Structures are given as structure tokens and as C-alpha cells.
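On clarity, I found the account of how folds are encoded harder to follow than it need be. Since the whole study asks how a given chain folds, the encoding of that fold should be made plain. For the editor and my fellow referees, an illustration may be useful. An entry of this sort, consisting of the sequence and the corresponding C-alpha cells, reads as follows:

:::
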Amino acid sequence: MEGHQAQGQAGHSDRTTQERFSAKGFIMAAIGSAVGLGNMWKFPYITGKYGGAAFFALFLICLLVIGLPILLAELTIGRGGRGNPSASMRRLSGQRKWGVLGGLAILCPFIILSYYSVVAGWTVHYSIKAFAGTLFSGVGYGQQFEELMSSWVPAFWQLAVMAICALVVGRGVAAGIEKFNKLLIPAMLVLLIMMMIRAITLPGAMSGVQYFLRPDFSMLTPTSVLAALGHAFFSLSLGMGTILTYGAYVDRRQSLSQAALAVTGGDVLYALLAGLIIFPTCFAFGIEVSQGPGLIFAALPVAFEAMPLGTLFGGLFFLLLSIAAITSAVSLLEVPVAFVMERWGWSRSKASAIVATACFMVGLPSALSVGGAVQGLSLAGKSFFDWMDFISSNIMLPVGGLIVALFAGYAWKQAADEAGLAGRAAWLWLALLRYVAPVLVMLIFLHSMGWI
């Protein structure tokens, strides 16, 4: 076992010698992975529902208690093992069973990407229609969305998104993923600020700002605590292997704890700015904010049509969503690509093309099941799209997060050393991973399943 382990470690080291993020490039890529579509519609909604700024403060506490420890654990395992989730856990523990458990973090992002690329395609479609002015054609936006879902157009845009991801990942870590995120993450921040300024200067917008930021501690309940826990976990893309895989490309000289704080801070900033876009806009135009994804594609276009320069700001809004979606999709693709490169020795370009094609084929039923050609393909009242989302988000992600916490907390004895922690900081981190995080992740799992 030890000889095989050393051989595998050496082989992988040769492959990744030229695959490294710069310090800034890693932060950008990790933020791109963490920030996604859910932050734009889900975070403002649950924040308003569960107490505004009071819930936001609770969310920050949950980030510190569960988000940061597991995020740091994923980074540490990735850099320590210098491989995909399965290979890293096997090498660091010397036990094959951990490699098998780590394999879940390879399958999970593949499944997520199969349907996430579909939603990303919707945002690209809407961005182009908004800039072209055809989105605001007088046809009801609910009807437009239904017409889109009933056609083959979602499959076309899903294919386009997968092609972009394959091209970026195929170029490598530094030349592809890093450069892509270094360009798009600052652009996304600029768009967020532009959209926020437009939103808070709308007539009646301050009511939305107050609703979002005014604390109402009377609304905090055990359910709101579970919601804050779940969002702290999911908003950082934990349990899906993306941060762990990116960690394999982090330089030894980079502080992992500082990197984890920077990524968490970027995620919080995005969520805050998203709230300052969604709430003021909804309040200014009398839109119900609790519509979930329908808010984005059916309700908000009404606001853009009514506001001055609505075609421009509508286009910028959907462009913002497209960037958030595609940067996350790139990180999802990198996980299975890294695995097949190690497992079968494929070149990066070959692995990217084949994995992206396979992911598109698996996701095609998702693209066509939301009102499309295979909408009748359902089981227990859920479409194919819904089942892919349910299995990955409600089951695989919490289980993946639990595996990471237990591995870094118990199985790998050098975890604190690799993380650069000593003394009380190491004791606190390991205590959170061993005793607190597993309990909280199980609560997240039970809540996401609707059992509590």
C-alpha cells in the first residue's frame, strides 16, 4: 500500500507541477465557484422571511461555525493530497475506503452540472433577449418562460454553456480557469454595484432596503436557525468537491486560513449586494419577493420594462447572472476532469471535451423536462430536473460535507499542520470539525429532506 501510495503521489506531483493558481487567482476562482444563482434569489428571500438583518447576523454566525471550518478542511485536504477528492483522501489516509467515500465528491458535481448548466443557459438566453430588446415585447413574461421551456432552445443554450466550460477548463488551471475568473469576478462586482445603485435610487426603493436590513429578532425561530445553517453550508459550495479540487492547485506558501476568510468574505459581499438589488427593485414595483426562481425569469422583467433604460439594466442583470452561473459551472466541471486525467492519464483538453459531452447528454433530459419534449418523464410528482436537484442538493452535498469534516477531524492526523494552525486555533478548528460540524450537517440534511 505504502509503495503504491508513494508511486501515485509522485505521478500526481509530476502532473500538477505546472498546474498552480497564483494567490490572487485562487481567491478569484474560489469566489467564482462559491457565488452562484441561488445567492441572487434565495438569499434575499430567506433573509426577508426570517427577520431581515437579524437573520443576516445569524447567517454570519453560522458561516463562522460551520462554513469556514469545512471550507478550510476542503482546502487543506486538496493541497495536502494534491489530487481529486478521491485520490487526495486515499493518499492522505493510506486507506482505500476513504478514496471510495471521496468519490462521492466527484459524482456529485457531475450531477449538479448536468442540470445547473440548463439554468445557466436560461440566463444567457434572457441576457441576449434583454439587450436585443425582444424580452420586453409586450408578451407576458410567464408566457415567454413557458414558451422557452416547451422548446428545444434550452438544450441549445445548455450545450453552449458546456462548450464554454470545456474551453476554459481545457486550457488549464492558470491559463484557463484563473484567467477566466480574474476577468469575470471583477466584472461581476462592477455589475453588482451598478445594479445596486440603480435599484436603491428607484422611487420607493428605501422601503425594500429597510425590509432587508432592519433586524426583527421576533422572527428568529428554530426554523430560521436551520435555514441559516443550510444557506451558510450551500452558499460556499461545500460538500461538492470544487473547493477541495481547487485546493490541489494552491501554492504551499499561501495561507489557507486567509484564503478561506477571503472566499467567505466575497460570498457574503455578493449576498449583501444581491439583497440590495432584489429587495429595492421588488418594493419599487410592487413585486412579491417570495417567488424563488420565478422571481428572476417572470417577475423582475416587469420591473426592468417599467424603469428608465430598462433594456440596458435588464441585460446587465441577466449578464450578471450568466457570469455567476458560468464561473460556478467551470469549477463543477474541473472536479470530474481532474479525476479522469489522473485515473486514465488523459490530456486536459481530451478530458474536458469528453466529460463535458457526457455531462450534456446526462443533462439533456433536465433541459427538456421542464415543459419540454420529455416533461412527462416524472416519478413521484418530480420531473427529471427536480430529481437531479433533489438527489444532489438534499442528499449528496450534506453527506459530502460530513465526509470532509470527519476525514479532517479524525482520519488525517496532520490536517492542522497542513492548514497552518497551531495551539488554540488548531484545537478550536478540530473541535468544530469533530463535534460541532457533524451534528449541524446532519441537521441540515434532515431539514433539507423535510424531516424536521
About this structure: The first strand starts at residue 378 and ends at 379. The chain is about 80% helix and 0% strand. The chain has a mean pLDDT of 88.
